[in-house]
Amino acid sequence: MENAAGDGLLPPPAAWNFSPNEALLGLTAVSLRGVLGRVKAGMVEDGARPVVPLGHGDPSAFPCFRTAPEAVDAVAGALRSGEYNSYANSVGLEPARRSIAQYLSRNLPYELSADDVYLSSGCAQAIEIICSVLARPGANILLPRPGYLFYKARAIFNGMEVRYFDLVPDRGWEVDLDGLQALADKNTVAMVIVNPGNPCGNVYTYEHLAKIAETARKLGIFVIADEVYAHLTFGEKKFVPMGVFGSVSPVLTLGSISKRWVVPGWRLGWIVTNDPNGVFQRIKVLDSIKSYLNISSDPVTFVQGAIPQLIENTKEEFFDKTVEVLRQTADICWEKLKGISCITCPSKPEGSMFVMVKLDLSCMQDIKDDMDFCCRLAKEELVVVLPGYAVGYKNWLRITFAIGPSSLEDGLDRLKSFCLRHSKPKK
Ligand SMILES: *Cc1c(COP(=O)(O)O)cnc(C)c1O
């Protein structure tokens, strides 16, 4: 039997066998891109004023955050050498792993080796890998609230149960350790901390990290330490890697070059096992990671090839300059936010690129919630910020200050006019 077009094909099937995986479609609500897409949906660019992007953290487009020339040379050199046109191996090229091990060992009381390092396509893929490795039927994972959305999405997609522990705003967003312990049971496999923090812009002290490690040991769970913002600190507290406590409780440290070198498009990250006692080896965590890497794709080979030069040659001045700009923009943000009605900011950001602020809806006359606030702000002022619900904190906002200083001032001034215009008249 032929179809009507007479092209010799069978008639089309009455129905295609595909039907969408509803779990996947449901994840749009828990993806940053999904939420920001909805915030921007009603925004019409008028050509008169530029859009101010305070929603997602990618400062790479701003000249003051341009990456180090040594980093560019490293990649160009690797590409020109012709030595990196092949597939890499599944765990990553040995020289790159060794150089990352040495780089991270500078801040640790013991030496990491190349074997402790696994390369990934950015920190995002590192999260994906770890969630896949940890997810066995029935497992649950403890995530911070507020928190970085991607963990939730990956954990849920892998079938893990997600439980939330609180970060306490008036204690510098420290982990509520009592609450955390109450959540854990024998199916809890790990807890996640993000330090320096996204979305809170906080930095944890040595003492607090020590308590986290002791708690994890007591519960028999691993600590996943997302340190993608390592060394991006500009307050009193210096960055301390969680790996310092690897002998108390084994730590999976996740990182990348995306934020410190301001090259999120280069897609190179890592998983590092901070485990001087060899726990991971004994209970087959390492075998699990290697098995997963055998069935996933690798970061681009020439960026792997560039890593030793990139790490060795980048000058301290570049890092100092980036931190200096962030200090300046964090200051601008803090000072300007203080003068905006209906918004309060519990603490000045000390690290990363973000700050959380609280909306006082009772002082506004016609705003329903954080999402409504963000959609109307985008529409009326062409300023994009992330509604707090997207990081598990309804009626707060996450604002990034990692953009050029003059755009930031402009954006915060527009935020101020918006709040003024929508606040209730004073009695
Ligand atoms: C940006 C970010 C990531 C993802 O990093 P990439 O290297 O760009 O994949 C992971 N975790 C946190 C907390 C981030 O802010």
List the defining traits of the structure above.
4-stranded antiparallel sheet, 14 helices, alpha/beta, binds pyridoxal-5'-phosphate, Aspartate Aminotransferase, domain 2
Question: What's the structural blueprint in terms of helices and strands?
Answer:
Layout: H1 22-26, H2 32-40, E1 52-53, H3 69-80, H4 94-105, E2 117-120, H5 122-134, E3 140-145, H6 149-157, E4 161-168, E5 174-175, H7 177-183, E6 188-194, H8 206-219, E7 222-226, E8 251-256, E9 269-274, H9 279-282, H10 285-294, H11 301-313, H12 316-338, E10 343-344, E11 354-359, H13 370-381, E12 383-384, E13 386-387, E14 396-400, H14 405-422
Parallel strand pairs: 1-12, 3-4, 3-6, 6-7, 7-8
Antiparallel strand pairs: 2-9, 4-5, 8-9, 10-11, 11-14, 13-14
The structure holds pyridoxal-5'-phosphate (PLP).
Pyridoxal-5'-phosphate (PLP) is lined by residues 122-124, 148, 194, 198, 226, 228, 256, 258, 264, 269.
Describe this structure as you would to a colleague.
This protein has 427 residues and is an alpha/beta fold. It has two domains: 28-65 and 317-422, Aspartate Aminotransferase, domain 1, CATH 3.90.1150.10; 69-313, Type I PLP-dependent aspartate aminotransferase-like (Major domain) (Aspartate Aminotransferase, domain 2). The protein has helices at residues 22-26, 32-40, 69-80, 94-105, 122-134, 149-157, 177-183, 206-219, 279-282, 285-294, 301-313, 316-338, 370-381, 405-422; strands at 52-53, 117-120, 140-145, 161-168, 174-175, 188-194, 222-226, 251-256, 269-274, 343-344, 354-359, 383-384, 386-387, 396-400. The strands form three sheets. The protein has an eight-stranded mixed beta sheet with strand order 2-9-8-7-6-3-4-5. Strands 10-11-14-13 form a four-stranded antiparallel beta sheet. Strand 13 and strand 14 (396-400) form a beta hairpin. It starts with 21 loop residues before the first helix and ends in a 5-residue tail after the last helix. The model has no long low-confidence stretch (mean pLDDT 95). Residues 122-124, 148, 194, 198, 226, 228, 256, 258, 264, 269 line the site of pyridoxal-5'-phosphate (PLP).
